[in-house]
């Protein structure tokens, strides 16, 4: 058969199958391959029947069906399987051919693979794909990075299958408003591991958003005594305002879903959360870069606490809970809770963008922060109207240092802080855990403090370890100081000074 296929996809789990069908729907010819070749035949006989999808029973056959430059996309488990497939593919491909990893790979692995594959004369892309099964089938958010020379060859495919959002263009030259345009939630992110890094931060923010919603749910359930149907109605209302998002939307639907006996299914689900590691990777990277993404960290650890089910049951018996019910008007409490959730969400994205900025500086990436918000506006799990406000902030000021300095978000924080404090303080008094809400508020208060108690901390470090300190009346280039706090120590000081 003449090589006429546009791209090959390796891995026929649900995400791989749905991406193939999405590509075929947009006029591309796709080669499907899976190590278990029976799965290829079953896919062609059922889901892909009648579509422009070709099956291959070997990598050699798969490569032979592709036109140049040959594009091969891996939709396999992250880690060793990706490296194994790269080694299998390299002898079969030629200069200029492109290997694409569409899984949730660690960005450092992607950076390593880019260098390795380029050293062999080929090109490599590591791309985040978000949106789950439904997104893969009908339009995901796609975040590609790696070899820049590969982008023009995959851009038509990726932008065709990506989710689309309506974006208002800039004004025309005569001052008239330009027509709105449908924009794909996919654009080039940067070199090396940039694409997978942005996807990793996306997933970290996803952890934070989910934890915040779960804490709001617990306040409604335990603090306000609301039924699942009442909570469904509240989330339905919230989804029509500033909190409009995919996660609020699915929470609304989950709370309305009944089990076979007519009772809420959500109440019958075991309260132990799973995780696949991307949230943890985000926290590790933030520690390496010195960026306090405290909300995402608490969201990761909240899942760890949830997994301690047996110990939690024992602790609940040992430490009897107080009455968790909130006193006062429920309608007002729901208004306060909505505002507190909104404020906490702003902090979560503020911290996420702080991490992106630090990573861009560390790894020499030229990230388009407004463009990232646009890529997240549709298709992905954290898609929301809120991201349009973030894009607008960076459109106005591309080098915006911090989201909290944008006038829109500054005004939003001022209008929500009183409700935020009310909800968090009452939850603390009532013994309802709100780790994400609480740490978001603590970060906000720390961030807006002109002076923190770190002066005492530096004195302590100097006292026990001669780590030195700087004085407030020192010029910027002054040498650090060491004090002989006890009068019996020597004159030596630590050789390094780190703020």
Description:
With 499 residues, the protein is an alpha/beta fold. The chain has helices spanning 14-25, 37-45, 59-64, 80-89, 107-119, 132-138, 151-161, 194-223, 228-238, 246-256, 278-289, 294-306, 309-318, 330-363, 369-377, 386-396, 407-430, 435-447, 454-465; strands spanning 7-10, 30-33, 53-55, 71-74, 98-101, 123-130, 141-146, 164-168, 180-184, 190-191. The strands form two sheets. An eight-stranded mixed sheet has the order 3-2-1-4-5-6-7-10, sandwiched between helices. A two-stranded antiparallel ribbon has the order 8-9. The chain is globular and about 80 Å long.
Subunit organisation of the chains: single chain
Provide the helix percentage.
40-55%
Structural class call reads: alpha/beta
Largest sheet, order of strands side by side? 3-2-1-4-5-6-7-10
The end-to-end distance, rounded to whole angstroms, is 64 Å
Instruction: Provide the gyration radius in Å.
Output: 26 Å
Q: What order do the helices and strands follow?
A: EHEHEHEHEHEHEHEEEHHHHHHHHHHHH
Mean pLDDT: 93
Biggest pleated-sheet summary = 8 strands, mixed
Low-confidence stretches: none
Q: Kindly estimate the percentage of residues that lie in beta strands according to DSSP.
A: 5-15%
The outline comes out as globular
Q: Report the total helices.
A: 19
Number of strands: 10
């Amino acid at each position: 058969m003449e090589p006429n296929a546009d791209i090959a996809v390796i891995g026929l789990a649900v995400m791989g199958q749905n991406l193939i069908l999405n590509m075929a729907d947009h006029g591309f010819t796709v080669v499907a391959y899976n190590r278990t070749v029976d799965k290829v035949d079953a896919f062609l006989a059922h889901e892909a029947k009648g579509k422009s999808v070709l099956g291959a029973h070997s990598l050699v056959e798969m490569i032979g069906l592709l036109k140049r430059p040959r594009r091969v996309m891996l939709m396999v488990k992250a880690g060793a399987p990706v490296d194994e497939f790269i080694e299998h593919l390299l002898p079969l491909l030629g200069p200029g051919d492109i290997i694409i990893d569409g899984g949730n790979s660690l960005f450092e692995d992607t950076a390593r693979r880019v260098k390795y594959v380029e050293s062999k004369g080929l090109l490599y892309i590591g791309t985040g794909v978000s949106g789950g099964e439904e997104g893969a089938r009908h339009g995901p958010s796609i975040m590609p990075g790696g070899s820049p020379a590969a982008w023009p060859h995959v851009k038509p495919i990726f932008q065709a299958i990506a989710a689309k959002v309506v974006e208002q263009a800039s004004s025309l030259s005569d001052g008239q408003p330009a027509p709105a345009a449908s924009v794909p939630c996919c654009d080039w992110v940067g070199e090396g591991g940039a694409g997978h890094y942005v996807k990793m931060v996306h997933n970290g923010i996803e952890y934070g958003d989910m934890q915040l919603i779960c804490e709001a749910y617990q306040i409604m359930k335990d603090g306000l005594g609301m039924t699942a149907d009442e909570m469904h109605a509240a989330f339905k209302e919230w989804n029509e305002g500033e909190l409009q998002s995919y996660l609020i939307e699915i929470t609304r639907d989950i709370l309305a879903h009944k089990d076979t006996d007519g009772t809420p299914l959500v109440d019958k689900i075991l309260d132990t959360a799973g995780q696949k590691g991307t949230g943890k990777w985000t926290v590790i990277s933030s520690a390496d870069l010195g960026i306090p993404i405290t909300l995402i960290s608490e969201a990761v650890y909240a899942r760890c606490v949830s997994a301690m089910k047996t110990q939690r049951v024992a602790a609940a018996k040992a430490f009897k809970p107080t009455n968790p019910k909130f006193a006062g008007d429920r309608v007002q409490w729901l208004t306060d809770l909505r505002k507190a959730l909104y404020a906490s969400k702003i902090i979560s994205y503020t911290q996420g963008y702080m991490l992106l900025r630090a990573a861009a500086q560390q790894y020499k990436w030229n990230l388009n922060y407004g463009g990232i918000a646009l890529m997240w506006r549709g298709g992905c799990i954290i898609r929301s109207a809120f991201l349009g406000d973030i894009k607008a902030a960076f459109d106005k000021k591309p080098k915006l240092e911090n989201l909290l300095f944008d006038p829109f978000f500054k005004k939003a924080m001022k209008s929500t802080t009183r409700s935020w404090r009310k909800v968090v303080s009452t939850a603390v008094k009532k013994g309802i855990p709100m780790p994400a809400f609480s740490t978001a508020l603590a970060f906000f208060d720390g961030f807006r403090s002109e002076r923190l108690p770190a002066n005492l901390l530096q004195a302590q470090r100097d006292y026990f370890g001669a780590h030195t300190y700087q004085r407030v009346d020192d010029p910027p280039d002054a040498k650090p100081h060491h004090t002989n706090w006890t009068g019996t120590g020597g004159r030596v000081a630590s050789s390094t000074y780190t703020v």
